[in-house]
Amino acid sequence: MKTRSQTTPKPLNTVRLPPLESPRTKPKSKPKPRPESGKKGTLHDLRRPKKPPTAFFYFMEDFRVAFKEENPSVKSMREIGRACGEKWNKMAFEEKVKYYDLATERRAEFEKAMAQYNEKKINGELSEESDNE
């Protein structure tokens, strides 16, 4: 008597599906018009306060100046950014504190400016008609 492993498997009953259309064969539709602003459907208010950078970006400003003085031959932003990231990751928290303090201070200023902006917007002092002027 033959065991199951010695017999050939029976073919499975399969269902044949219609062929898929490839993206190359589909007729091209007209491109959709892009919104004027960067985000979908929203227009950016130019008077809205801009968010402040993080502590790392304040560090990066200082680091770039020092790095360019030490390595004048390096022109690639990729290499400068990589060196900056490595230095930031190796730094002790005590060294980073001054950048965190600066970022916190600027964030507080932003929050105040944003509160004033929202208050003016609610009161109607910032109207959409004045944007066109």
3D architecture notes:
The chain is mainly α and 133 residues long. It contains three helices and no strands. The protein has helices spanning 55-70, 77-90, 93-123. Helix 1 (55-70) crosses helix 2 (77-90) and helix 1 (55-70) packs across helix 3 (93-123). The protein is extended. The N and C termini lie far apart (95 Å). Mean pLDDT is 81; it is low at 129-133. This is HMG box domain-containing protein. Keywords: DNA-binding, Nucleus. Residues 49-118 form the HMG box domain.
How many alpha or pi helices?
3
Biggest pleated sheet: none
- Rg on CA atoms, Å: 30 Å
* Total beta strand runs: 0
- Helix share, percent: 40-55%
For the termini, the CA-CA separation is: 95 Å
Could you name the ranges where pLDDT drops below 50 across 5 or more consecutive residues? 129-133
The fraction of residues assigned to DSSP E strands is under 5%
The helix/strand class is mainly alpha
Shape: extended
| Sequence of secondary-structure elements | HHH
- What's the mean pLDDT score? 81
Keywords: DNA-binding, Nucleus
Subcellular location: Nucleus
Biased composition (Basic and acidic residues): 33-46
GO molecular function: DNA binding
Key features of this structure:
133 residues; mainly alpha; 3 helices
Write the layout of secondary structure elements.
Blueprint (H helix, E strand, L loop, with lengths): L54 H16 L6 H14 L2 H31 L10
Helix pairs in contact: 1-2, 1-3
Question: Summary?
Answer:
The chain has 133 residues and is an all-alpha fold. It has helices spanning 55-70, 77-90, 93-123.
